[in-house]
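Q: I'm writing a short explainer about 2,5-didehydrogluconate reductase for a general audience and would like to include a description of its predicted shape. Could you first generate the structure from this sequence?
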Amino acid sequence: MRRIKDTALRNIRRALAVIIALTLITMSLSACGTNEPYAGTGVSPETQTESENSVSDTSANEEDTKVLVAYFSCTGTTEAIAKGITDATGGTLYQILPEVPYTAADLDYNDGSSRANKEQDSAAARPAIKGGAEGIEKYDVIFLGYPIWWGQAPKIIYTFLEKYDFSGKTIVPFCTSHSSGIGTSNTNLHSLAPTANWIEGKRFAAGASKSKISEWIDSLGLKTGGAVSSFNLSAGENGKAPTVTLNSGYEMPIVGLGTYSLLDDVCVNSVASALQSGFRKIDTAYMYHNEKEVGEGVRKSGVPREEVFVTTKLYPNQYANAGTAIGEALEKLDLGYIDLMLLHHPGKGDVEAYKAMEKAVAEGKIRSIGLSNWYIEEIDGFISQIAIMPALIQNEIHPYYQENEVISYMQGKGIVMEAWYPLGGRGHTKELFENETIAAIAAAHGKSPAQVILRWDLQKGVVVIPGSSNPDHIKENISVFDFELTDEEMNRINALDRGEKHDWY
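A: Of course. Here's the predicted structure. Afterward I'll give you a sentence or two in plain language.
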């Protein structure tokens, strides 16, 4: 797969990606109910707490760019959006709180003498801000969120921009409203921070889904250098999965073919069929006893090698002689190089085996490296002993065994999560497909239960590698980009978690 060779460009993308991500956070938190003073009877202002009027750093992953998400919000309409962005990218949140909180009467659109009306009508109005954003000078990018009031940003945003020096900083505005676009509320703010680098903003409606927010962020072409918890699913189409950029700089498709239990000609033909159906990612392992057949299937497919992403794994009984095992995998696959190699699960000598993979990366034999079946209790002690952060961790993940804490923890370290047994595993698939919740959601979308489960994983930011030797099922498994699960449907599947593991790893 293609590598981003220009390090400087990659760092810029990371910085901008963080910017956008946090922009969305801001949006969530900045909405004011309807995102405009309510045209009718009452608005119910959110509780504005002093504890939120401070810079709260939630990210430990911003190595190149420091991002601040500053937002003004009255009712918290955009709060869910903001939290989704924070979870996905990390960063620092700052809530802009008025010294005198707004009441429902203050926000009455129909009352020409209401406080909000008067402020918006006055060019000189600058509502006082309670407290301040300490250490704002250390941030490179500021996401600035607010609700639209009469087509413009609330005047408290003007106060914020005039209060600090934004010279050389990048500002990304975003707003929330039911009907109004961002319009001139964006450009009218530029004169208040003329020495900043302004990026065109975006308007979000109330209730925008996390996936929509993530897709917008990704559509800007900006990749974060921190957490990896969402994919640009809108860039995919049935038969062609979008990619995620690993922390190694290589791009990897987010849907692949798992080859566990596929042997001999069945494996060769399944790999060839998958690639001809649009798959570009194949997963194998030493213990699957089919690396040679996977390589043969890639060549048989006629798809150029550089378009295919192949993952294999070292098993613990190979750790003592990992260098030799890497050479054997290269020979069996016979594809020139290995896109991603994982340690199959923790075992004696795993650190030294990983260092052997690091050496192979330096030698150009392997492009990216990672782990399989590593959990929170193992990862921190492990990464303190190695030089290259794992690009990916592959664990058992399905609706009955969701591992949500593990997913968010690893993603927060910039590690992509991948699900093996995404459909429950052999012996459990039928039960999962017949689950009433999954079956009902599948029927509502005119999709199969398998497609619903795979889409659920992808919307959680988890790569999937379903296995199959059936050409129809293979094609079905990569046809998951023409529908979207609602937040309510995602939550219904999330509620199915039993902590029920289907294999011993």
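A: For your explainer, you could say: The two ends are 29 Å apart (CA to CA).
Q: Perfect, that's easy to follow.
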